[in-house]
Amino acid sequence: MDNHDEPPRRSGDSRSNNSILYIVVAIVVAFFIAIYFIRPSRDTITPAQLVDLIDAHEPDASGKPVGSLAIENSKGKKILYSNLRNATVSKSMVSAVVDREDLDADNKDIASSKEKGAPIVTYLPGDEQSLNEITDALKAHGFKDYSGDPGDGFLEIYGGLLFMTALIVILFYLMMRRLGGAGSAIAFGRSRGKMHMQDDLNISFEDVAGIEEAVEEVKEIVDFLRSPDKYQELGGRIPKGVLLVGPPGTGKTLLAKAIAGEAGVTFFSLSGSDFVEMFVGVGAARVRDMFQQAAAKNPCIIFIDELDALGKTRGSGMVGGHDEREQTLNALLVEMDGFDSNSGIIIIAATNRPEMLDPALLRPGRFDRQVLVDRPDAAGRADILKVHVKSVKLDESVDVKKVASITAGFAGADLANLVNEAALLAARKGKPAVSMEEFDEGVERVTAGLEKKQRVMHEEEKNRVAYHESGHALVAYCLPNTDPVHKVSIIPRGLAALGYTMQRPTEDRFLMTQGELESRIQVLLAGTVAEEMVYDEISTGASNDLERATELARGMVTDYGMSRLGRVNYRQSGRSAFIPEAPDERMRSHSEETTREIDLEVKRILDEMLQKTRSLLSDRRDSLIALAERLIEVESVDGEELRRVIEEHSHGPRIVPGTDSPKRSRPAGEADKPEEGDAPSAEGAS
To answer: Where is the composition biased (Basic and acidic residues) (predicted)?
Structure first.
């Protein structure tokens, strides 16, 4: 692979390293100054003065040398030395211990100026004559315990101080390392990106399944990183940045790793939130540090996950244009396509909220290309399942295509979780392999939640939930434009659901007609209508059904133009196309009178759908009661048994009340047949 020339480093690139170097130099200088000024206090005398001091000593009766000598030092002060002892002779110096007394001190201070055991020293730099004279004088006056030191006496003088200096330096080094760790003040400006070398990236495009269109879009980048000359000869320029957009769990991060693994270049990975801190300027410093590290590994890939945490539209914050996030975004914009070009550095980012990104990020020269990583279709789900079941022992009854057909709307992460749930269920049951039964149960666990068989329900509540779910299932079965009912259960699941009705679509759907929306509203309202017919009153279990039905009706009026108010959109929504459940940022653009008309129209739609649902259930009351009794008896009814119970207790032609079209024909057993399409829905009491 041909490497690009490394761009010139800016003068501020090594600012952090220079600062640390300056600190170390200052510390060394300070310690040398300390050594000079706080070295041990020793009186220095000449060799001749030392000889005179030795000659002044005569041994007493016990053989101990005694005597004194007054010597004037370099400052003109007279000092009386006496009782010389512990003389040590070496080639470069002679040290001894004496009693010291200041003769110039006042009488009242004589006692305080006396010092016993004061050290003195005489330096002999290569003066062998003086050394011999001192040695002869010591021998002549009875000094027998002096010993020659083969060293130069430096450690003897400065050993203790050097030990303390080394100890302080070590403590300072450890403190600097501690301060330089993650989360410290010194490390604030450092990038938190993790560098992955080629040996760490064992992921290729073969490990990415179900998003073939996205893979084809990014293969061009890999080809450029492998052979850039082919494009440069024709004057082509590789996209500076690639933005991967799509719902959560569809494999955006995996695709970025596969690009780095296929291209054979260094891969830096980090999140958009890694740049933002409470201190202003830290995020911008981290961005610059990240690109400096990338320039040293050119060519390379920088992957920023959750870019919307960093790249939100400027001016939308409460603080103004000088907050930390906007400064960080400005630094990223400059690094991506500023005055200094960073050739050979490709930025790949992932987000599921592209509508929130600043337009300056999306212009050509920065994120030139946007790649959609959407939820897979049936064939894509089958390919993803094949990747995940490689390490799972499967029973012969498992058909991957059939599992893919009953998991419509599942993303790659959902399918991986489904395979894991099925394996755990099989292990819990003690089975040697994972069968189709575990996959069916795993789908229910993922979509509706965990079963709560230990929850004891009151008999009246259990009967009410049975009629509620029977209403959902009966209306869903009878109405056109509805997904087939796969299973009805009154076993509590999830956080608050006391029962659920699972519908599975027959095909992948991307559009919905007005009739389909109205049918969905009727299915949602059927539970509370069934309770009203049997118990003459409703319960709180339909709160979620009413919320969803009202939202569908409001969408028909404000978003889709499916009402008497005309083909007008009354809601400017900032809702993400990939996260429908995320709260949207609405901005009203109509009057109060129009708002009242919208509310009245929503209520009219709900009232009409409620009346149609009530009429349908009244005509099929026998089927409703029979289905509820069957639910109370067995707690769960599948699609085939549901069809049989309803057909046995139905009378007259199957014409949906309130419409002129007959009920679409459905072969026997179709409700129990696995289908593909949108995500399986679970309607039920909550």
So the answer is: 661-676
Q: Is 574 annotated as a binding residue?
A: no
Q: Is 458 annotated as a binding residue?
A: no
**Consecutive H or E run containing 403:** helix 400-405
Look at residue 9 in the predicted model and tell me its pLDDT: 43
**From the candidates 326, 335, 469, 601, which is the catalytic residue?**
469
Return the CATH fold of 189-372. Answer: Rossmann fold (3.40.50)
Neighbour count for residue 599 (Cβ, 10 Å): 12
Sites in the chain below the pLDDT cut of 70 = 1-27, 29-41, 58-66, 73-76, 104-113, 126, 144-169, 171-201, 277-281, 315-323, 338-343, 453-455, 494-496, 572-577, 580-588, 651-686
Rg (CA), the chain: 44
Nearest to 291 by CA among 258, 337, 228, 327: 337
Nearest CA to 361 out of 314, 311, 398, 319 is that of 311
421 is catalytic: no
User: Using CA atoms, how far apart are residues 131 and 42, in angstroms rounded to an integer?
Assistant: 20
Backbone φ and ψ for 396, nearest 5 degrees, come out as: -65, -20
354 is in an annotated binding site: no
DSSP-assigned states of every residue in 107-176: GGGHHHH-EEEEEEEEE-SS-HHHHHHHHHHHHHTT-----EESS-SHHHHHHHHHHHHHHHHHHHHHHH
- Give the whole-angstrom CA distance, residue 550 versus residue 529: 15
Quick one: pLDDT at residue 8?
A: 42
Find out whether 541 is annotated in a ligand binding site: no
Give the closest residue to 89 by CA, choosing from 57, 64, 123, 65.
123
CB 503 within 8 A of CB 482: yes
Count of CB atoms situated within 10 Å of the CB of 156: 15
Query: How far, rounded to the nearest angstrom, does the alpha carbon of residue 486 sit from its chain's CA centroid?
Result: 38
Look at residue 474 in the predicted model and tell me its pLDDT: 93
Q: Which amino acid is at 164?
A: M
**Torsion, Cα of 47, 52, 56, 58 (10° steps):** 60
**Angle 514-535/459-478 helices, nearest 10 degrees?**
150
Q: How many helices (H) and strands (E) does the chain have?
A: 21, 18
Which CATH class name applies to 459-683? mainly alpha
Q: Quote the CA–CA distance of 508 and 511 in Å, as a whole number.
A: 10
Q: Could you tell me which of 474, 410, 473, 481 has the C-alpha nearest to residue 446?
A: 410
Q: Is 513 annotated as a binding residue?
A: no
The number of beta carbons lying within 10 Å of the beta carbon of residue 485 is 26
Q: Give the residue among 602, 541, 544, 548 at the shortest CA–CA distance from 571.
A: 602
Which two structure tokens, joined as six digits, stand for 210?
Answer: 């179900």
249 belongs to an annotated ligand binding site: yes
Q: Is 65 annotated as a binding residue?
A: no
How would CATH label the architecture of 378-448?
A: Orthogonal Bundle (1.10)
Domain boundaries, the chain: 43-161, 189-372, 378-448, 459-683
pLDDT of residue 678: 43
Shared fold status for 378-448 and 459-683: no
pLDDT of residue 437: 86
Sign of the CA dihedral running 434, 436, 441, 442: positive
Q: Is 661 exposed, middle or buried (0-12, 13-18, 19+ CB in 10 A)?
A: exposed
